[in-house]
Amino acid sequence: MEFGRLVTAMVTPFDDQGRINWDETAQLIDYLIEEQKSDALVIAGTTGESPTLSDDEKLELFRFAVDKAGDRCKIIAGTGSNNTSHSIHLTQEAEKLGVDGVLLVVPYYNKPSQEGMFRHFEAIANSTQLPILLYNVPSRTIASLSVKTTLRLAEIPNIIGTKECASLEQITLLVSSAPADFKVYSGDDSSALPTLAVGGYGIVSVASHIVGSTMKDMIDSYLEGDVRTASKTHQKLFPIFKGLFECPDPLPNPSAVKYALQLLGHDVGGVRLPLVGPNEDEATFIKDLITLV
């Protein structure tokens, strides 16, 4: 399965009552594919506010995205959790709906051992024919999937890659030892180009909601050997990459990018509690940031 180089972790649009806004979801999918050049979309991941989506909402989002995207891009369902049996159930239901793959986050809060994480992902992989992208994000999960465990998991046929947020060092170690067809993606926008430079495959991005087409140009420039142009594009985008998360103080994802989308005319609504939107200073910072787009 080929998910492409630029994968957008899509926000979930809400209306003013906090319900999923299906009309805006349809428009957002079109926009991310046609204007921002996403090769694939992650639906109901962290950026999609998965912790506050019910299973019924997630499954309806998967179905809706598959139907709306058609053959224009791949749909990756966020079905990971810290409950192995629940992740198996959600993955199997997503498979029935026709998604192209699933994203499985490292189990959070219960802090499993490396062997526990291996068995967790192995059990889910054995329950489905879908291609699986692992997701290691220790800043959120506390537990971190080691290089050694990731390489063990890479030997399972339908575990085809990982979204790695631990460090560029870990990405480097993975790409130097993993099977040739195992794809390593950065989960940090500011590391997109460095990840390519050390042999990684692509980026699972938040900033691609607003600068995706420029990011795609950066990736293409690098792959075509024009490293100078890619570097200059990275430098231009870097304040946006950092600003969406620093804002000027750390603001929980996806609060900043949702507000940025609203400023650009996309009525994606706010975030569900316990997340909150930007305060006055943060809103001003995001407005200034958008002038760089």
From TrEMBL:
SMART domains linked to this entry: DHDPS
Active site residues according to the UniProt entry: 135, 163
Compartments reported by the entry: Cytoplasm
Site, as annotated: Part of a proton relay during catalysis: 46, 109
Binding site for pyruvate: 47, 204
Enzyme class: lyase
Catalytic reaction list: L-aspartate 4-semialdehyde + pyruvate = (2S,4S)-4-hydroxy-2,3,4,5-tetrahydrodipicolinate + H2O + H(+)
Keywords, ordered alphabetically: Amino-acid biosynthesis, Cytoplasm, Diaminopimelate biosynthesis, Lyase, Lysine biosynthesis, Schiff base
UniProt cross-references to InterPro entries, sorted A to Z: Aldolase_TIM, DapA, DapA-like, Schiff_base-form_aldolases_CS
E.C. designation(s): 4.3.3.7
Entry-linked Pfam families: DHDPS (PF00701)
Pathway membership: Amino-acid biosynthesis; L-lysine biosynthesis via DAP pathway; (S)-tetrahydrodipicolinate from L-aspartate: step 3/4
Quaternary context: Homotetramer; dimer of dimers.
PANTHER family from the UniProt entry: 4-HYDROXY-2-OXOGLUTARATE ALDOLASE, MITOCHONDRIAL, DIHYDRODIPICOLINATE SYNTHASE
Family affiliation: Belongs to the DapA family.
UniProt function note: Catalyzes the condensation of (S)-aspartate-beta-semialdehyde [(S)-ASA] and pyruvate to 4-hydroxy-tetrahydrodipicolinate (HTPA).
The protein's name in its UniProt record: 4-hydroxy-tetrahydrodipicolinate synthase
